[in-house]
Specification:
about 100 residues, alpha+beta, 4 strands, about 35% helix, about 25% strand, globular
């Protein structure tokens, strides 16, 4: 992303089928970040947990409900970005997902 976006090196995009899953994913990410001593710079979300943005400085994690993922269509918006595996991103930042 660095060539296309001056803020983040990577975008991670995921979704849950319902808002309860979106909230659960977010809560697990926060828990894991604390366990790994990874600082969260900023979080934005809507009130209903239809979407959440977690800013880890170099990495932006987008968690969407399926309808919001389709609506924002970040994969299309950033289609010029090179796709890399999540495993590669996690290993670069020495994050163990166990």
């Amino acid at each position: 992303m660095r060539k296309l976006n001056l803020i983040w090196d990577y975008f991670i995009i995921c979704s849950g089928e319902v808002t309860l899953q979106v909230e659960a994913i977010y809560e697990e990410v926060v828990k894991k970040a604390k366990e790994e001593a990874i600082e969260i710079h900023h979080v934005e979300q809507d009130r209903e947990f239809r979407w959440v943005l977690v800013d880890f400085f170099d990495v932006a994690l987008h968690i969407f409900s399926e309808d919001m993922r389709s609506f924002y269509d970040l994969e299309h918006l950033w289609k010029e970005a090179k796709r890399v595996s999540l495993k590669k991103i996690l290993s670069k930042y020495k994050i163990n997902m166990g």
